[in-house]
């Protein structure tokens, strides 16, 4: 209990840093009227009818589509001359269809999607920079950083997070988080018995490799941000660590994709799972106060694991630039959707960390045990790269991870293949 | 298939019309009948096993796809998901839309194919062989290839968000298959029957309508079923053409049960069961036509 | 679901039917004037019969094909993302046939090249179609008799055709899990140790085939059953009188008379299996390149990396290959002689 209280306190500390950082940007958070001309200007609000389309990746599973629809309805109630049609699309479908629709000249004005899409959309020159439309300093820096490329802001952060965390079942693993990776693995070995496995996680995606790569001091790109650096000692150490979990310490099941890992944890057959912040609500429902949450344990003798953080962002398509009225309304909607009130409402409805700096300092976040834990974990993450090359890197690493988890112990060979495969892929992008 | 001589050496009666006698149970020992039932039961079990598992996911509480216990009926089974998708989501609307759209497209497709196949079966005209090959060629195109240009076409023709584009596209895409199957069946119906009807004063098209079509019922039913299923399950065209809430079909609607990282497996499974019901009902209902098509055709000259 | 939504859908479809009726009427009217009144040709009837299909297919297939052909000669990609116009001549995107050459020269996927993918595709197609036809034929022959429970058997066996494919595939994929999937658990019951269906290249390929056979047999069975119904009983009576064995009857009556129905079904089945994206995509959960076939490779290239020019060229090569194969098959077996007569 005491330790938990300590954790609690440290979360507050983490949050304080975020908030302080935002306050430090020269804008008083409460008066979101910066000196620049970047403000929502009610005076010039168009009176003509404006019909907008917003494509969102959000689904009904977690109530997020309903939230987006409510925002659109609320906005219509404020401005009766504006209608916003909300269209749900699967993440990949949204990207493909937006590209094609832009080519055909029928693109939606607004997108509510993941940061990764900035790479393809800027490469194809399909979205508008937001630097002149909205005030970057109103957002949590960690969130704005994800969608800032070379000083240009491409998305308005609605929520951020997505970081991988450690969840544990207190009935099996006890109340406390393991101190470091050695302690964690030792405990997991102890808890691997019969049909129970110590540590479960998705063994089929490189997203689960990335935190450990960071934990050993590695990054996927060199400082230029585009040259892959996958054949490194840090990568080999990270691969070795994962290999050992499964084949040396034998604490991981023989085949586990996302659903297997998730099912085992929910069935009470795994004390620890590595999973994203998006399952927080579902696990809290299943386990109640038997659920432990925290950052991944630090690598013994190394650093903290560094999961990627990403989120949901509003982006503006070039289709909105053609017409002055449309652009004015779209800009106003950006401010509306990321206003502190609406962001607090989002936290309440969806249990996600808000992009707005004032909202993240609100008691709705700081007073919530689990959200505050997620906020702490998010602080240890690094922004997920959004460029086109990242897709090649992810896919190449994923192939390597799958190879590793079918029992290939040659980590040097895997790292080498990852690197060459990523390089080939990047040259072919054209 | 073996390339053996096509025509049986046995005396051939040239008229159909008499009941296609079912390979009968003559001389079947109880042992053989038992074996037949055993094989069919085995096949049926394999066929329905995954379906039962989908049902299991729908009944499983706590939204999980995997069940580490291997129980056909999961512990704590609940019909909650069925209630939820039927009363608290737009699934009924999506199903209704799909049903209306699919029925319309299947009928249009069937009409176009039935008449075209008649031309291919009963007339000799230049370009007939080439035409059949081209029809086949349309089936060879990898579907993924057509998506981007179809999107652009739909925008240029202003067909987005209406069922006009959907019905045309869905009915036309299944036409090549339908023509091939229908032509194959028409060819098995002796042309003498139509000739006899024409002697009796029918026009050529009347003979087609009153003789050939009724005799081809099983083929028409198969083609209708095929068109229906293709349209019923269509996702890619709908994704391009439909975005308005009130027009969504079920494949688009179900997408909403999936968030980026999470899926409502039990809702998805419950919906799949409900989605299959109309199709299964259609299969069951149409099976009597599948059987009786030829036998019922008591066409006497 | 409110009344408004109901009328929307019905209204939309009703409008569509009217629109289509008008289009067809105008088309047929024009053809009538042209062919019957002006040209006075004897071919008027067949041309008017096939006209709606021809027009529809031309618009729906020809335009996209020409568009793709154009793109395949350009370097269109995300970094060169604009409508290339005619051959990309006006904006320097024209690259000639280099996209076509690259398909054979560079690895199509990360490591795997064109020829290996072709080999995998051929094995995949041949084994599936063979099993579909054999399985469908066997079940159809068993069901084509008077027996108790016939309707129930038929209904149950066609179920895989009725359930939404993607859902069925997701379930199959879960059932292949090494430890918790039903497939291995059932095998364990009869004493067979766990098989790594998802991670081992060979077994994964087998798993794909099993799944696709499960999906494909009902279609073949229904087609063949329909074909069996169309064979007049008199043939069998005559055979019986001649004292033919059931094997002889099958070989000399059933099979030849099924041919008009079976041949198109086999050809279409081949094409669909060749072009099947869903099964290899979902069952190959680990994205093993040994389980990819040509069209899944195309899909990855076109949509994951948006190499539009390359993908268009690749698609045409697949298309050409299939066309050559099909024409060769038809010529070689004479399988469609009947169809062309």
What would you note in describing this structure?
The complex is a heterotrimer of chains A (430), B (301) and C (341). Chain A contains 18 helices and 13 strands. Chain A is α/β, with parallel strands linked by helices. In chain A, strand 4 and strand 5 form a beta hairpin. Chain B is mostly helical and 301 residues long. The radius of gyration of chain B is 24 Å and the shape is globular. The two termini of chain B are 35 Å apart. Chain C is mainly alpha-helical and 341 residues long. Chain C contains 15 helices and no strands. The longest helix of chain C has 37 residues. The chains are: A alpha/beta (430), B mainly alpha (301), C mainly alpha (341). At the B-C interface, helix 1, helix 3, helix 4, helix 5 and helix 6 of B face helix 1, helix 2, helix 4, helix 5 and helix 6 of C.
Coarse structural class of chain A: alpha/beta
- The number of distinct β-strands of chain C equals 0
Q: What is the N-to-C order of secondary-structure elements of chain C (H for helix, E for strand)?
A: HHHHHHHHHHHHHHH
Q: For the terminal residues of chain A, how far apart are their CA atoms?
A: 56 Å
Oligomer: heterotrimer
Helix content bin of chain A: 40-55%
What's the SSE blueprint?
The complex is a heterotrimer of chains A (430), B (301) and C (341).
Chain A: H1 2-23, E1 50-56, H2 64-78, E2 82-88, H3 91-104, E3 110-114, H4 118-123, H5 141-146, E4 148-149, E5 152-153, E6 156-161, E7 164-169, H6 170-173, H7 181-191, E8 199-200, H8 210-215, H9 233-248, H10 258-266, E9 272-276, H11 280-287, E10 291-294, E11 308-316, H12 324-337, H13 340-350, E12 353-354, H14 357-360, H15 363-366, H16 369-379, E13 382-383, H17 388-404, H18 411-428
Parallel strand pairs in A: 1-2, 1-3, 8-9, 11-13
Antiparallel strand pairs in A: 3-11, 4-5, 6-11, 6-12, 7-9, 7-10
Helix pairs in contact in A: 1-16, 9-18, 17-18
Chain B: H1 30-59, H2 80-87, H3 91-122, H4 128-138, H5 147-156, H6 163-173, H7 175-188, H8 191-199, H9 204-215, H10 217-232, H11 236-241, H12 250-255, H13 265-295
Helix pairs in contact in B: 1-13, 2-13, 3-6, 3-7, 3-10, 4-7, 7-10, 8-9, 10-13
Chain C: H1 3-39, H2 44-72, H3 98-105, H4 114-143, H5 150-157, H6 159-162, H7 165-175, H8 182-189, H9 201-229, H10 233-241, H11 246-274, H12 278-283, H13 294-304, H14 308-333, H15 337-340
Helix pairs in contact in C: 1-2, 2-14, 3-14, 4-9, 4-11, 9-11, 13-14
């Amino acid at each position: 209990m005491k330790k938990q209280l300590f954790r609690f306190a440290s979360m507050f500390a983490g949050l304080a840093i975020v908030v302080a950082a935002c306050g430090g940007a020269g804008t008083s958070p409460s008066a979101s009227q910066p000196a620049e001309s970047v403000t929502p200007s009610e005076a010039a609000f168009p009176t003509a009818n404006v019909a907008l389309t917003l494509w969102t990746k959000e689904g009904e599973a977690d109530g997020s589509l309903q939230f987006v629809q409510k925002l659109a309805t609320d906005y219509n109630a404020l401005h009766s001359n504006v209608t916003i049609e909300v269209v749900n699309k699967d993440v990949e479908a949204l990207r493909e269809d937006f590209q094609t629709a832009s080519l055909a000249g029928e693109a939606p004005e607004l997108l509510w999607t993941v940061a990764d899409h900035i790479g393809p959309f800027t490469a194809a020159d399909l979205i508008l920079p937001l630097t002149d439309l909205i005030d970057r300093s109103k957002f949590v820096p960690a969130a704005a950083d994800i969608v800032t490329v070379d000083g240009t802001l491409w998305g308005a952060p609605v929520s951020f997070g997505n970081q991988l965390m450690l969840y544990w079942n207190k009935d099996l693993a006890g109340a406390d988080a393991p101190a470091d990776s050695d302690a964690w693995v030792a405990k997991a070995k102890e808890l691997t018995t019969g049909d129970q496995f110590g540590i479960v996680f998705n063994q089929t995606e490189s997203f689960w490799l990335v935190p450990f790569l960071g934990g050993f001091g590695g990054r996927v790109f060199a400082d230029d941000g585009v040259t892959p650096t996958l054949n490194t000692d840090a990568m080999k150490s990270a691969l070795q660590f994962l290999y050992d979990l499964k084949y040396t310490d034998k604490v991981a099941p023989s085949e586990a994709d996302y659903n297997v890992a998730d099912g085992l944890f929910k069935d009470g057959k795994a004390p620890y799972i590595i999973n994203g912040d998006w399952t927080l609500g579902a696990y809290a429902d299943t386990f109640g106060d038997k659920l432990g949450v925290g950052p991944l344990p630090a690598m013994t003798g190394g650093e903290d694991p560094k999961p990627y953080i990403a989120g949901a962002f509003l982006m503006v398509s070039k289709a909105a630039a053609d017409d002055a009225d449309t652009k004015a309304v779209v800009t106003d909607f950006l401010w509306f959707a990321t206003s502190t009130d609406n962001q607090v409402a989002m936290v309440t409805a969806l249990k996600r960390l808000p992009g707005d700096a004032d909202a993240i300092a609100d008691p709705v976040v700081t007073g919530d045990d689990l959200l505050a834990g997620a906020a702490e974990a998010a602080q240890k993450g690094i922004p997920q790269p959004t460029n086109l090359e990242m897709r090649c890197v992810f896919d190449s690493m994923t192939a390597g991870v799958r190879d590793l988890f079918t029992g290939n112990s040659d980590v040097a060979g895997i790292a080498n293949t990852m690197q060459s495969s990523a390089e080939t892929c990047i040259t072919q992008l054209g | 298939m073996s390339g053996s001589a096509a025509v049986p050496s046995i005396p051939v009666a040239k008229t159909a019309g008499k009941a296609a006698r079912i390979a009968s149970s003559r001389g079947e020992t109880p042992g053989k009948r038992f074996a037949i039932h055993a094989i069919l039961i085995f096949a049926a079990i394999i066929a329905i096993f995954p379906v039962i598992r989908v049902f299991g996911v729908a009944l499983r509480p706590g939204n999980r796809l995997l069940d580490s216990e291997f129980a056909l009926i999961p512990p704590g089974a609940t019909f909650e998901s069925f209630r939820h998708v039927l009363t608290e989501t737009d699934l009924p609307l999506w199903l209704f839309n799909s049903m209306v759209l699919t029925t319309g497209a299947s009928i249009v497709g069937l009409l176009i194919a039935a008449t075209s196949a008649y031309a291919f079966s009963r007339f000799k005209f230049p370009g007939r062989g080439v035409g059949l090959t081209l029809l086949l060629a349309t089936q060879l195109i990898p579907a993924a290839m057509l998506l981007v240009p179809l999107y652009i076409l739909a925008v240029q023709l202003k067909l987005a968000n209406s069922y006009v584009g959907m019905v045309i596209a869905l009915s036309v895409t299944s036409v090549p298959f339908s023509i091939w199957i229908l032509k194959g069946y028409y060819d098995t119906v002796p042309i003498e029957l139509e000739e006899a009807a024409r002697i009796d004063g029918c026009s050529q098209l009347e003979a087609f309508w009153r003789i050939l079509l009724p005799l081809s019922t099983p083929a028409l039913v198969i083609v209708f079923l095929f068109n229906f299923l293709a349209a019923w399950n269509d996702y890619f065209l709908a994704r391009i053409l439909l975005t308005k809430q009130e027009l969504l079909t079920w494949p688009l609607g179900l997408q909403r049960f999936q968030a980026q990282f999470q899926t409502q497996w039990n809702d998805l499974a419950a919906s799949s069961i409900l989605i299959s019901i109309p199709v299964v009902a259609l299969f069951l209902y149409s099976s009597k036509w599948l059987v009786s098509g030829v036998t019922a055709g008591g066409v006497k000259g | 679901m409110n009344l408004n939504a109901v009328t929307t859908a019905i209204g939309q479809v009703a409008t569509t039917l009217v629109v289509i009726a008008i289009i067809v009427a105008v088309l047929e009217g024009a053809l009538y004037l042209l062919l019957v009144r002006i040209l006075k040709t004897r071919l008027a009837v067949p041309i008017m019969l096939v006209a709606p299909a021809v027009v529809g297919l031309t618009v729906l297939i020809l335009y996209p094909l020409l568009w793709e052909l154009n793109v395949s000669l350009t370097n269109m990609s995300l970094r060169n993302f604009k409508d290339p116009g005619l051959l990309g001549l006006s904006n320097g995107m024209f690259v000639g046939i280099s996209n076509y050459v690259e398909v054979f020269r560079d690895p199509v996927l990360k490591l795997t090249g064109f020829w290996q993918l072709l080999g995998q595709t051929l094995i995949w197609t041949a084994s599936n179609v063979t099993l579909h036809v054999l399985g469908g034929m066997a079940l159809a022959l068993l069901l084509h008799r008077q027996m108790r429970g016939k309707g129930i058997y038929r209904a149950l066996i066609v179920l895989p055709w009725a359930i939404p494919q993607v859902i069925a595939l997701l379930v199959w994929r879960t059932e292949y899990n090494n430890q918790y999937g039903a497939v291995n658990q059932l095998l364990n019951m009869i004493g067979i140790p766990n098989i790594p269906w998802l991670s081992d290249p060979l077994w994964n390929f087998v798993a794909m085939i099993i799944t696709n056979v499960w999906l494909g047999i009902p279609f073949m069975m229904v087609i063949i059953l329909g074909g069996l119904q169309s064979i007049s009983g008199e043939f069998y009576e005559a055979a019986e009188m001649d004292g033919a064995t059931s094997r002889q009857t099958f070989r000399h009556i059933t099979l030849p008379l099924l041919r008009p129905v079976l041949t198109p079904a086999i050809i279409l089945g081949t094409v669909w299996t060749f072009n099947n994206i869903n099964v290899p995509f979902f069952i190959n959960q680990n994205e093993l390149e040994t389980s990819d076939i040509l069209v899944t490779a195309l899909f990855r290239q076109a949509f994951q990396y948006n190499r539009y020019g390359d993908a268009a060229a690749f698609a045409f090569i697949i298309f050409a290959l299939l066309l050559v194969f099909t024409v060769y098959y038809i010529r070689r077996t004479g399988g469609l002689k009947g169809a062309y007569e």
